[in-house]
Amino acid sequence: MRMSVTIRQIAVKAGVSRGTVDRVLNDRPGVKPHVREKVMAIAEELNYVPNAAAKALAFSKKPLHVGIIMPPREIEFFQEIRDGIEEAADELKGFGIQLEYCYVSNQNPEEGAAVIRKLVEDGVNGIMFSVMDDDLIRLSINQAVDSGVPVITFNSDVEQSKRICFVGQNLPQSGRIAAGLMARVLRSPSKVLVVAGHLSIYAHRARVKGFGDHLSGSGIDIVQVIEGYDRFEDTYEKLKEALTRYPEIEGIYMATGHIGACMDVVKGMNRPNRYRIIANDLMPEVEQGMREGLIDFTIVQNPAQQGYRSIRMLYELILNGKMPEQQYYYTETSIVIPESL
Amino acid sequence: MRMSVTIRQIAVKAGVSRGTVDRVLNDRPGVKPHVREKVMAIAEELNYVPNAAAKALAFSKKPLHVGIIMPPREIEFFQEIRDGIEEAADELKGFGIQLEYCYVSNQNPEEGAAVIRKLVEDGVNGIMFSVMDDDLIRLSINQAVDSGVPVITFNSDVEQSKRICFVGQNLPQSGRIAAGLMARVLRSPSKVLVVAGHLSIYAHRARVKGFGDHLSGSGIDIVQVIEGYDRFEDTYEKLKEALTRYPEIEGIYMATGHIGACMDVVKGMNRPNRYRIIANDLMPEVEQGMREGLIDFTIVQNPAQQGYRSIRMLYELILNGKMPEQQYYYTETSIVIPESL
DNA sequence: CTGTTAGCGCATTCAG
DNA sequence: CTGAATGCGCTAACAG
């Protein structure tokens, strides 16, 4: 097949120099409107597509700098996201990409906002953000984007902001999948319990809602939704009380919340028929629970893929100015059982 | 951070020219042994990493040509693999990669062998292969590899050949996962049936074996393994007969084989309690069966990922001479339920 | 055997 | 406003 069309070819065809073509293609000033149009037209006609290698090479004196803002590294879940980021970065390393991780507490919006501003001042070419959703944060993100630094959110979105796009899980679907599984392992008239962290947080609520909606009319009833505030004590007490009060409960959906506490309660219940338990993600406690035969299914959101895709999209955007086509990119939601481990 | 080390830097440090360094780094002949060693040492010391962009750019006059040999495009499953291949190719397109698809019947080894030879003669830089396993094929693959054209098998391996590596599914694991699911949806003493295509084919046998092994001692018995030879008639008759003879059967594992026939039989059985059915892959018949509520689970092997990874590994190998670390690359095996669709 | 040189396609000066 | 020239890191062809 033919070599693909180069900037030079369109230059000769347009009767201008390569420099001019470059200016047009990259939306830089200093080209007379009619020349610009002509060049554009020819580029379209020839179906010009820039050579990524050449571009990267030319860029390589000034390496691409991207800032990554996420919760403290102790959080296991984010470690997996990092793995995905690193994988993508490895593939792009030859092209001079430079990552700067900034760990920020999930509790303090001011800190997050400050870090964004600092990165922008330092001249990063793009930002990946995954901390909390807050007005202060929203403001900083908007300022960054306005000043030309693209921001992509991942795993947890900052809604109503000017962030370019969000890469994460389809939460209601993960709730529906949990419901589908529950309906398959339990026989029809039966009762289940739901455990969540904070129902005031969108991510937590969305799963519970997806679960409930899908189950309604199926003959499987949700007797209670427990809110444990991600604390051991609250979760433990409330769950224990509920299970004691409703001995007919056969299944538990742990949408979010303190898994350790749930496991402890379940172990202590000492029932003839074990509970059917469905969890989310693959934190160590969940994996442990699966190996012990306590947890039947866990629904995972492919954290590595979230990291991988975020970086790649940002890279594409920065280097080629290619805007993502969608606002929301959902990573695959999949089901894990002990045999999958 | 510092710019990464270039060929020129190691050249000055070694007191030789860039050409020589290039020769050493790429294992090309024409360098005195002691010079070669010195250069190698310095490269190690400086922790030299080639610049992928520059490499790709320099190569771009002579585009990378890879041949892809797979079954006819009508087969839905392979279409998904193609999607993965195309995705990777898109990412590498800027780097001048050129795909040539060759569709070959799964029945005729001679054709496959001939295509391999033809591709090698045409001077492809690498081959991806996924048709049948046969001595003739093995021979052609070995010849290709010996003459310097790397071959990677995907989805279905050619064992005992010199192919660089295999990218595909962990078949026994997929059988075990099916068993795990079956054990969770059925209560303990119960009976199930297995449907397969050809038990003489490794891929088919491996799943059945994984399923059986994992179920042994669980209280769930396999009353029969049906071999349908991927034909409607055989599958239909045998399955119907078995289900009629053993009305106590509660679950069916469709490891491989003619899904359409299975669906027809099941629909015709008219039972009060529906069967619990587990299938593999996401062919249209399976998707249909799931939507109709006949199939509970299907175990998928991420065909797109198989294509994606194969291409990337081949690219790495050709461009950077980086041999894969393993012989077998298993793609993620995941579980799909109707709610995941 | 080894050094030199001319591109690969693009971004980015610096002159006009 | 536009053209020409230079270099990114590497390969390959050509001189020595």
TrEMBL record, chains A, B:
Q: Which SMART domains match?
A: HTH_LACI
Q: Which domain of life is it from?
A: Bacteria
UniProt xrefs under Pfam families: LacI, Peripla_BP_4
User: GO molecular function, one example?
Assistant: carbohydrate binding
Where the record annotates domain HTH lacI-type, the positions are 5-59
GO:BP terms for this protein? Answer: regulation of DNA-templated transcription
Question: Subcellular location, in the record's words?
Answer: Cell envelope
User: One GO CC annotation, please?
Assistant: outer membrane-bounded periplasmic space
Family designation: Belongs to the bacterial solute-binding protein 2 family.
Entry protein name: Transcriptional regulator
Biological source species: Paenibacillus agaridevorans
Its lineage opens with: Bacteria, Bacillati, Bacillota, Bacilli, Bacillales
